[in-house]
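Lab meeting, action items carried over

1. Structure of the two-component assembly. Owner: GW. Status: complete.
Input record:
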Amino acid sequence: MAETLIDIDILRYRPEEDDAPHLQTYQIPFDDEMSILEALQYIKDELDSTVSFRWSCRMAICGSCGMMVNGEPKLGCKVFLRDYFPNKITLEPLANFPIERDLVVVMDDFIEKLESIKPYIIPAQEKSIDDGEYIQTPEQMAKYKQFSMCINCGLCYAACPQYALNKEFTGPAALSLLARYNRDSRDAGGAERMKIVNAEEGVWGCTFVGYCSKVCPKGVDPAAAIQLFKVESAKDYLIAMFKPD
Amino acid sequence: MSHSQHTEPKRSHEPIFWGLFGAGGMLTAFLTPVMVLVTGILVPLGLMSPEALSYERIHDFATTWYGAAVLFVLIALPLWHTLHRIYHGLHDIGIHRGRDIQQVVSYGFAFAVSVFVFTLLLQMF
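Predicted assembly:
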């Protein structure tokens, strides 16, 4: 029996030889169980070793293989050829990020934003190890747990039309990470982080399109984190009117 | 690639406009269908007596303090909602020039019409 084939277009860009990104088509044998990431590995091993892409865990926990699959931000390891067969698949680097090489993007801005929100517990007062652990009830943990599931893949930034228009916007993943810490009962850094939330580039850069939550491969709901913060920020605004600091 | 995050972030005044937008959106979502049903369907089809919307009856309602308050809120808030949406919509469709002027015109219009409606209601008493 003849092999069934599937076409995959990859947006190629090698800065040392290409003036502009361009599509290159590869034809590979179709396999029902092959993920897009495995298809890329097949291409690199069997057809063209010059294709560059990021990957590590193959099981949607490292967040490395984010890319645009037929124009939608996806993890390469979490979508399969069968989801698209018999149609052609087009792979492009994540939207809204500069291309470094082929499917590899420059994530510096994203990483800086994650760092900028102070992504660590700021305790009210330091405890020594002898004083024992910080106790937390399941109810207190449920308040922030979903926002701690982010794997920093960047799909939400590729999905966000506001980040596309204005790179100053703090963005979905960083704001959900901020929510993860501000909602944690062990944390006392809320007021410090609210300054980031209250800014134009904070939650007010969002117009609640909600695509970030739709593309998240880990079920985090950044849009909810941001809208809840808008209420917090509005309260904070009112309080500051009567009690300036 | 470092951005303004390193300087102290500046507080946005958006909560005021977002508050009016939210309140107006709530009213629009819940009450506009009712208004359309009454004025556009029930009365024209004769399912509700046209007397219900007679000049005298509405005038009596509009000249009580609570009636005037209800009308003012029903007209002003959805207007703030609409203009907030238009202002942000301009950014979304790529019209980035003159954001300050866009803001003044959008919210200025909502403010002017609010004042106009307020005055109109007052002088009916």
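2. GW to write a short summary for the group page. Key points so far: The two ends of chain A are 76 Å apart (CA to CA). Chain A has a mean pLDDT of 96.
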